[in-house]
Specification:
The complex is a heteropentamer. By secondary structure, chain A is of the alpha/beta class. Helices cover about 30% and strands about 25% of the residues of chain A. The chains are: A alpha/beta, B mainly alpha, C alpha/beta, D mainly alpha, E alpha+beta. The complex binds adenosine-5'-triphosphate (2 copies) and magnesium ion (2 copies). Chain C: Its main location: membrane.
Chain lengths: ~325, ~300, ~350, ~325, ~550
């Protein structure tokens, strides 16, 4: 499956645990994936499935209670988890850009937007004050904020939600990163603004040739921009395929259910929505069974005793499920 | 969300809020230690005098400035009074002052805070009133009020009860403002919460919204203010004693004992050490209990 | 569709809700946020009117003003023959059981310190004289109706999942057998997999109990699924109101068009070929709306007249109302032909 | 912001007037008497005469208005004259006069301000210097041993009355160790290095007593505020930008955390003046707190009235400052 | 040699608020001012009058006092100058009199000029004072710290109403004393330097004086006895064991002297029952039981005064049974029965008088309980004493309720306050009183009938017990006409005994002053009759 260019990011067997008062939460369980340069990988999954935690684990941006217990993160072949502090800072600052979930709170309210952009430029691009300002204004223009020069002096609260999200993108893009990780950057926004931003990203991606990881739980968005999609459930990647392939031949029961629950603005209107019954899994122990088994219409004995491994089903498509939808029978592996 | 759902999946027995709070509270080590110490002190001052039966006001001239011994576990003072007996007696008063004054402050503060927060029309006047009280310099006023009303109260309730009421009243009436402000802030936010809107859409009248929806939800800042209130009231009482106000000198309180004993630091250190220790321990334990309560009552923390 | 002419349950006329802005040394009123600026529409008995629009355009305010949770600045709201906008406190309280609301955030709309049974029985306590036993029986009934396990009656909201919490909210709204329910983004805070459950529940209940919904949402695909007719709001005004299929198939107002085109479709093939209308800029502030048409600052088809004259709200085809100069002009050029057809189609569909 | 400030100032006026009236009235009702502390050998007639010479026989309203006039018009004019050398009228205005010293109250207060400001001011500075790092580190390493000990110590500091700490300080550092003087020399002038050292020595104990009590409280606020902010999303953003931990904590988080703390500090200052009363008493700093106590003990009503009222003004003023600071520090409020 | 011993550090824990003794009657002000301004004659440490700015004390014998006792003539010594170099003249004395007697000035020392008809400057150095009545003891004006001479040139514009506005003058009077004010901070600190024009060129030994105030007595004592920061500390009303322990540090020592101060219990002969309303504590209603001498005598007998002294006063107190304990010749010995602590006798007396012990331990007679309300001013020693008394009286079946009132209220004499010692709305009250100088005439007149406080005289009056007998009044009168010292002494003793027998006053402790001085300080002669600092010019630092 990795036959394209050498991967920009390669993650293997990543495990992250939250140590809380009421016990450990295994938020990420043996996640492996890779991102090629210039590739846009969409990550979908329901709330709490570990999308954000996975991405934060990569660059060690987890909150205090969390711990990456195992796994390997290679960025251009360099092992991120064994990096020295300084090297890690440079990696975060120069080569990776992050856009976080909530634009309303992700900017520091007491510093001007200009300062929050130039800060990064000055530290990691070694720019002087003036140069950094110039570049910051350029960036704001790039993300489509009018009157950029003047708005550098404004504070975050003077921007609307959509504009703040664009500022976040500007910060993320400031040092021409090789990898952009965007964590639900449009979930909080209106559709029209979301459309603006999606357009912007498509545009930038063409221009800058970045690898992008785009987290969302909106399958529509994924369908619109991603090259490849990963589906997460219960802290694991349960399915992974190029976008067309996934929508055309979803393999995992969760993915299939998800696609069916969605009404659409176009096409035929369903009379009744399909639902996924049951509760999301509890993450208090390392899984010994399939996390989706309890809600799965096709679950059978093996699902309860053995956590499925990811199986290649061809067309660069792999899935972690013991059951084969094509045959309607368990896979024999 | 998942965590809560998870909780639900595991436990089927119905749980109550109180039990939840309690289990969270017991997980707080400091708070439990505080509760233990506080209980111990309360027991000491309530049950103690039945075990150590020396009359705290009895002057045993031959035993003045006695060192620590079995008969006088904390020694005696310069007039031969037993310090332990006084500490226990004083503790009753100090604790009672703390609790009652705090009670007044909390009731007033909550009432005014809720009124100001909930009724937009009352907000302005009540907050001005709060500002006014905040801006009143307490100390001189305390003095004057005590001087003014001491006699009336004394004749009405007797010397000790009278001054007790006065001290408690004054501390209470001058320390509700913080609570009022905090409560008002919370009520302002709560008022906009959808469950209050939901109650309104049902047609629940204002007073019942306040009782049913607002008050229980401002409970946690109130509880925290309450614990802080006990602590400050005890300290304020002792400061009053320091300035020669407050209770008559033959009526021990912890502050009074400290004040009277401070010059004897070299001679009979036990006389200052023990009241100082119980005073500090009480304030400390109450503060820790407050800390624990805050955590336990905070749904954000509890939810996780 | 108009032949059957179902009874109008709710009639909103020229509803306005302005919030005052105070500024300066003396806190004098210096302006108003025109959150809702002259809405008129009807809701028929048994139908679902979808209300869509961007964040901050005044959807929630509309819903609340209709239920008299805000005192409207102007206009009338007649629900079942009673003008609730003009009722006094006592009469309003009596009218409350008729109309209920389901809220956006299931967490925030439930008092975290009350048990489920308490929450659901609160309306019963306020409006009926049932005793505790009768109330509990009714609560159980309601919990069954919304698909909550009866055993959970004395649990607290935080012990439930989002979807379950929303069910509690729905049960509370149903307690007094209301005719009309305002659903203020009841699914926005829910996960995709749970949204469907709640929407299905709402549909089932409507069918069973003959409820009338005002369904507020910014999720156009859900609205398409659920609503009978759809109103599109922009900056305090309705810009387009039409039967659902007419609106989705043939949006007329440029804003509606942009909105629909911006909704991503979960199908890579469709997405690859779809043309998105990308609007420039942000929504203006309702405190300071532009002169003329509210949409003129972002409209891709803006004309000079739009910056001057407020477009009128006109019913060009039966049941399809638009407020747009462009539509007016097109209409004038080619009076009523295409639209007749469309209308007929819709009539059949409904 | 400006309008807001002006508005607050305007609101302060009726509040202050109300307070002035309350203070005046309550103190006037007080049964204490300026001649109460005179030796008993002074016969009653003489006492009567002394009272009359103090203007005690005027009716209440007149005295109140007179006092208002003196306090709000005459004294400010005098101060302006003193500072600028300008002359308004004949300069012979009736002033608020203390009964005990027979001298203008305002002069007494001005004379005492330096030591109070020095001690209270320094204690605040030291309190902040102690409290901020403790609060920051406690929060940054929440539940570490540093945090636990910090919490414990600050709670202990919070729960011991200052009169007690002060005394222990004197016994330990003055009597037993002989390091610092137990009595503050208000006449001391700093002229050279040695006198500077002495000034520091004599300030250490009163300042520390106050500072410790304040720091205990401040560090709690600081910690809570830091905890709030450390988990905020923008911190993650800052880290993601590749900023070092030091910059993240000491610039991004601290700046935000200081917003509530600074207002707490500002609100605290008037109470410190109150708390300083006891400290001043213990170390003979003889600042305005001690003046107040003497005034109360000596029933020097004009002095007490003026001082309490000045305290009230300070409280109102610092409330205002707190609010304005809040606005200045927090841009969300600044552009209201 | 003048100004050779550096700085003298004095601490008065109550700080002086003004340096003009005419505008403040407080001891602290008087004593601070005594460094600067002086009277014509002073009392020495044993109470003898010594000429100060004059060469000799005028008497009838040396012709200084007229035969009819209405005139006294003082002659200022040669060459006495103010610190500004101008000579002290009789005019200054005349001015001092005018200054104090101006009705609008509010002079606190007015009583020193009682009955003075005129003060004249006969010549530059001769002052003649004329009294309106014969004065057997004509040494009121210009004798002792209470009535010093102020400079006319300085205070000329400060007469009457203007007195309080002269802040500069009041804070830095010019005097003839050994020191000159250099700086004065009211209620805080005063600094002085040696007077260059002082009459004795070798004095004072100290170049400067730092006169600090504030804090409390215990810490003032500590600063002299333990830390050695100060040389002299005044009025150390501290528990004796503390003082003793501090003195053990060796930095300094305690000095004490006895004057006329007596801590006493005043017995209310009138009924303070609040139910009486307006007539509360007036002669209209005699006290239900305190007028019974058996009761007061029993109360007195049941007091172990030794314990009170030991617990509260130490070396600065001794038990006394007289309200007039000094000077020596005035002290009665007829009441010494009370020195012996004798509860049995007290119980016997009460039994005899028909007071029967009740089941609750309180005696009753005709339904009247022996229950007293006992008030005093707030002060830890007094509260200790109160507690002891309460316990001692419990032994004889007397129930005591204690009350303490802030001193400024208790002694404040405010019409509206019910808590003043003059209203005496209690059964017993305790405080200390004394008299200035050595002559008890005015003091003993305190218990005349016309001195009884009542609503009619706005409760002004010094006869707190409301004791009133014609015999006593007659003695008061007689004393005003008697000149010979021995006769005056006999009269005083007689009056003292009369009060004791009636039980109007229960004396407890003869109180002395205690001060502390640094070990290195020499020349201190503790004086209770005049300013403690009376001879500060003679103080010096040991080598
Ligand atoms: N600070 C924390 N403490 C404990 N558990 C946490 C914490 N943060 C996240 N988790 C848990 O980790 C799991 C994964 O969370 P994550 O935020 O990655 O989900 P997500 O897929 O990003 O969801 P969403 O779509 O809602 O953003 C969840 O079960 C969550 O409860
Ligand atoms: N109480 C209020 N005071 C002042 N302005 C208000 C108030 N409530 C709402 N507004 C303003 O009115 C406008 C409409 O708000 P409303 O909440 O109705 O929008 P909405 O369409 O429901 O948005 P969302 O999709 O975010 O819920 C907004 O600009 C809002 O800022
Ligand atoms: Mg996430
Ligand atoms: Mg809304």
């Amino acid at each position: 499956m990795r036959d394209g260019p050498a991967p920009l990011l390669d993650v293997a067997d990543l495990k992250t645990v939250f140590h809380t008062r009421s016990g450990d939460v295994h938020a990420v369980n043996s996640v492996s994936f890779s991102v090629a340069p210039g590739e846009l990988v969409g990550v979908v999954g329901e709330s709490g499935s570990g999308k954000s935690v996975t991405m934060m684990s990569l660059m060690n941006l987890l909150p205090g209670a969390a711990e990456v217990v195992s796994g390997e993160v290679l960025f251009e072949g360099r092992d991120v988890r064994r990096m020295k502090r300084r090297e890690l800072l440079t990696l975060r600052g120069r080569e990776v850009g992050f856009v976080f979930q909530d634009p309303m709170t992700s900017l520091n309210p007491v510093f001007t937007v200009g300062r929050q952009i130039t800060e990064r430029l000055r530290k990691h691009m070694g720019m002087g004050k003036g140069a950094a300002r110039g570049r910051a204004a350029e960036l704001l223009k790039l993300v489509g904020i009018p009157d950029a020069e003047r708005r550098l002096g404004d504070y975050p609260h003077q921007f609307s939600g959509g504009m703040r999200q664009r500022v976040m993108i500007a910060i993320a893009l400031a040092c021409d990163p090789k990898l952009l990780i965007a964590d639900e950057p449009t979930t909080a926004l209106d559709v029209t603004i979301q459309a603006q931003i999606l357009e912007l990203i498509k545009d930038l991606r063409r221009k800058l040739d970045m690898g992008i990881v785009w987290i969302t739980h909106d399958l529509g968005v994924v369908a619109g921009i991603a090259d490849r999609v990963m589906v997460m459930y219960g802290g694991q990647i349960v399915e992974q395929a190029p976008v067309g392939e996934l929508f055309a031949r979803p393999q995992h029961p969760y993915t299939r259910a998800l696609l069916q629950t969605l009404p659409s603005v176009e096409g035929t209107r369903t009379e009744r929505l399909t639902t996924i019954e049951g509760q999301p899994p509890q993450l208090d122990a390392h899984p010994s069974s399939c996390a989706f088994a309890e809600r799965c219409p096709n679950a059978f004995g093996r699902c309860m005793t053995e956590n499925p491994v990811r199986l290649d089903v061809g067309h660069q498509h792999d899935v972690a499920c013991w059951w084969d939808p094509a045959t309607g029978e368990p896979r024999n592996v | 969300m998942t965590a809560e759902a998870a909780v639900e999946a595991v436990e089927d027995r119905p749980r109550t809020l109180a039990r939840d709070v309690w289990s969270q509270f017991t997980a707080h080590r400091g708070a439990m230690a505080g509760l233990f110490v506080f209980t111990f002190i309360v027991l000491m001052v309530t049950v103690g005098p039945y075990i150590h039966t020396i009359d705290p006001t009895y002057l045993d001239f031959r035993a003045r400035n006695a060192p620590v011994s079995w008969t006088h576990p904390m020694g005696t003072d310069n007039l031969g009074r037993d310090v332990l007996a006084q500490v226990m007696q004083g503790g009753r008063v100090s604790l009672l002052v703390g609790v009652t004054a705090m009670g007044i402050a909390i009731v007033l503060g909550t009432l005014i805070g809720v009124m100001a927060g909930y009724f937009r029309r009352l907000d302005g006047p009540l907050m001005r009133l709060t500002d006014l009280f905040l801006a009143l310099p307490i100390l001189p006023l305390l003095l004057v009020i005590i001087l003014l009303f001491r006699d009336t109260l004394r004749t009405m309730f007797g010397p000790e009860a009278g001054i007790f009421l006065l001290v408690v009243f004054i501390i209470g009436i001058t320390s509700w403002m913080q609570t009022a402000r905090i409560v008002r802030g919370d009520v302002l936010a709560l008022k906009e919460r959808e469950f209050v809107l939901a109650a309104k859409s049902i047609g629940t009248p204002a007073y019942r919204i306040i009782l049913r929806h607002i008050l229980p939800n401002v409970l946690s800042p109130i509880m925290v203010s309450a614990t802080l209130g006990i602590a400050t009231a005890i300290i304020t009482e002792s400061a009053l004693s320091f300035l020669g106000l407050g209770f008559p000198s033959d009526f021990p309180t912890w502050g009074r004992l400290l004040f009277d004993g401070k010059d004897f630091l070299d001679l009979t250190p036990a006389r200052v050490f023990w009241p100082g220790l119980v005073l500090s321990l009480t304030v400390l334990s109450v503060n820790y209990i407050g800390d624990g309560l805050r955590d336990a009552l905070d749904p954000h923390i509890r939810g996780r | 569709m108009s032949e059957a002419s179902p009874r109008k349950l709710v009639e909103v006329r020229d509803l306005r809700m302005y919030f005052d802005i105070h500024k300066g040394i003396l806190r004098r009123k210096v302006g108003e946020v025109k959150a809702v600026d002259g809405l008129s529409f009807d809701i028929h008995e048994g139908e679902t009117l979808g209300l869509v629009g961007e964040s901050g355009c005044g959807k929630s305010t509309t819903g609340r003003a209709i239920l008299r949770l805000y005192d409207p600045t102007d206009g009338s709201v007649v629900i079942d023959g009673v003008d609730v906008a003009a009722l006094d406190a006592g009469a309003l309280r009596k009218a409350r059981p008729q109309m209920q609301m389901i809220f956006q955030d299931p967490q925030a709309s439930l008092n975290p310190r009350m048990t489920v049974a308490d929450i659901i029985s609160e309306p019963l306590r306020e409006h009926t004289d049932m005793d505790a036993k009768a109330r509990l029986a009714r609560v159980r009934e309601l919990m069954d109706a919304v698909g909550l396990n009866r055993r959970y009656a004395d649990r607290y909201p935080h012990e439930f999942s989002g979807g379950q919490r929303q069910r509690i909210g729905i049960a509370r709204a149903l307690a007094l057998n209301p005719k009309f329910i305002v659903c203020d983004e009841p699914i926005a805070a829910l996960d995709v997999s749970i949204q469907a459950q709640v929407v299905n529940l709402l549909e089932d209940l409507q069918r069973k109990l003959g409820l009338t919904y005002l369904f507020i949402s910014h999720d156009l695909s859900m609205v398409r699924h659920l609503a009978t007719r759809v109103a599109v709001m922009y900056l305090g005004k309705i810009v387009e109101l039409a039967p659902r299929d007419a609106l989705y198939a043939r949006p007329r107002h440029p804003y509606t068009q942009a909105l629909l085109s911006a909704v991503p479709v979960p199908d890579p093939q469709v997405e690859a070929t779809r043309r998105h209308i990308i609007l420039e800029g942000d929504v203006p502030s309702p405190a300071n709306p532009p002169k003329g048409c509210n949409f003129c600052t972002r409209c891709p088809k803006v004309m000079d007249i739009c910056r001057e004259v407020v477009p009128e709200f006109r019913e060009h085809t039966k049941g399809h109302v638009t407020a747009c100069h462009l539509v007016d002009q097109e209409q004038d050029a080619s009076p009523l032909r295409d639209n007749d057809k469309i209308e007929v189609q819709h009539g059949e569909q409904l | 912001m400006f309008a807001y400030t002006i508005r607050r100032l305007l609101f302060a006026i009726p509040t202050l007037l109300a307070i002035s009236f309350i203070i005046f009235a309550i103190l006037d009702l007080a049964p204490s008497d300026p001649t109460g502390n005179l030796p008993l050998t002074i016969p009653p007639e003489v006492r009567e005469q002394i009272r009359a010479s103090m203007g005690l026989d005027e009716p209440f309203a007149i005295r109140y208005l007179l006092w208002l006039n003196q306090f709000f018009i005459n004294e400010p004019l005098n101060l302006i004259e003193g500072w600028t050398g300008w002359q308004f009228g004949d300069g012979d205005r009736l002033r608020v006069t203390s009964w005990a010293t027979r001298s203008p109250v305002v002069d007494l207060i001005i004379e005492r301000l330096p030591q109070t400001l020095w001690v209270v001011g320094m204690s605040q500075v030291i309190a902040v210097i102690i409290a901020v790092p403790i609060g920051v580190i406690s929060a940054y390493r929440q539940y570490s041993w540093f945090d636990q000990i910090g919490t414990f110590v600050s709670m202990v500091g919070f729960s011991i009355p200052t009169f007690f700490t002060g005394l222990v300080f004197i016994v330990v550092f003055s009597v037993n160790l002989g390091w610092f003087p137990s009595i503050y020399d208000t006449n001391h002038r700093v002229t050279d290095w040695d006198s500077f050292v002495f000034q520091i020595q004599q300030m250490i104990m009163p300042t520390m007593v106050l500072a410790l009590a304040t720091a205990a409280q401040l560090s709690r606020y600081m910690r809570a505020s830091m905890l709030d902010n450390l988990s905020a999303d923008y911190v993650r953003t800052a880290r993601a930008k590749g900023l070092g931990e030091r910059v993240v904590v000491w610039i991004h988080v601290l700046r935000n955390s200081m917003i509530p703390v600074v207002t707490v500090i500002a609100l605290n200052i008037p109470t410190i003046f109150g708390g300083a009363i006891i400290t001043e008493q213990i170390f003979r700093v003889n600042g305005i707190g001690q003046l107040l106590i003497i005034g109360i003990q000596g029933a020097d009503i004009p002095l007490v009235q003026t001082l309490t009222f000045i305290f009230a003004i300070l409280i109102v003023l610092f409330n205002l400052i707190a609010d304005i600071l809040y606005g200045i520090l927090d841009p969300r409020i600044r552009y209201e | 040699e003048r100004a050779s011993d550096g700085q003298l550090n004095i601490i008065y824990w109550q700080a002086p608020s003004i340096l003009n003794p005419y505008l403040s009657g407080g001891t602290k002000e008087l004593e601070a001012a005594s460094l600067v301004i002086e009277p014509l004659a002073r009392y020495d440490e044993v109470g003898n009058m010594v000429p100060w700015l004059v060469d000799e004390i005028p008497t009838v014998e040396n012709g200084g006092v007229s035969e009819d006792l209405t005139q006294i003539t003082w002659t200022i010594s040669e060459g006495i100058t103010w610190s500004d170099g101008t000579p002290l003249t009789a005019e200054d004395a005349v001015f001092s009199w005018q200054y104090c007697t101006d009705p609008a000035g509010g002079c606190a020392q007015l009583s020193n000029y009682t009955d003075v008809e005129s003060v004249e400057a006969v010549d530059d150095r001769t002052i003649r004072i004329t009294f309106s009545v014969p004065k057997p003891f004509p040494y009121g004006p210009f004798v002792g710290a209470q009535s010093p001479i102020i400079q006319k040139a300085q205070f000329e514009n400060c007469l009457g109403e203007r007195a309080p506005t002269c802040t500069d003058e009041n804070f830095a009077p010019i005097g003839t004393g050994p020191f000159v004010v250099t700086d004065f901070k009211a209620n805080d600190v005063a600094t002085f330097e040696a007077n260059a024009n002082y009459r004795d060129p070798a004095k004072p030994a100290f170049a400067t004086v730092n006169f600090k105030g504030g804090g409390d007595a215990a810490s003032a004592a500590r600063s002299v006895l333990e830390t050695g920061e100060f040389d002299y500390a005044w009025n150390l009303q501290v528990e004796p064991e503390i003082l003793r322990q501090m003195a053990a540090a060796g930095q300094g020592e305690l000095v004490s002297a006895f004057g006329t101060s007596v801590e006493r219990i005043m017995v209310n002969f009138t009924d303070p029952d609040p139910a009486l309303g307006e007539e509360r504590a007036t002669l209209a209603h005699p006290h239900p039981f305190l007028t019974d001498p058996a009761v007061t005598r029993a109360l007195s007998l049941a007091i172990d005064r030794e314990i009170l002294v030991e617990a509260g006063y130490g070396d600065a107190g001794r038990p006394t049974c007289n309200v007039l304990p000094a000077p020596e010749i005035y002290a009665s010995t007829n009441n010494d029965w009370c020195l012996e602590y004798n509860p049995e006798e007290a119980n016997r007396l009460l039994d005899e008088a028909g007071w029967e012990m009740g089941s609750d331990g309180v005696r009753t007679k005709d339904g009247e309980r022996l229950s007293v309300l006992f008030q005093t001013s707030t002060n830890s020693v007094r509260q200790g004493t109160q507690a002891f008394l309460k316990q001692m009286w419990e032994q004889i079946g007397v129930e005591t309720e204690l009350r303490n009132i802030d001193a400024s209220v208790f002694f404040g004499g405010d019409q509206s306050s019910p808590d003043t010692f003059q209203k005496f709305f209690a059964d017993l009250e305790m405080y200390t009183n004394n008299f200035d100088g050595t002559d008890p005439e005015r003091y003993m007149a305190n218990w005349a009938c016309n001195e009884i406080p009542s609503p009619e005289n706005q409760w002004l009056g010094s006869n707190m017990p409301r004791f009133c007998t014609p015999e006593y009044d007659a003695l008061v009168e007689q004393m005003g006409e008697t000149a010979a010292l021995e006769d005056r002494a006999a009269l005083a003793i007689q009056m003292n005994d009369m009060l004791m027998d009636a039980g109007a006053i229960i004396p407890l402790v003869h109180r002395g002053g205690v001060s502390a001085k640094a070990a290195s300080l020499e020349g201190v002669l503790m004086n209770e009759w005049d300013s403690e600092l009376w001879n500060i010019a003679d103080w010096s630092r040991a080598e």
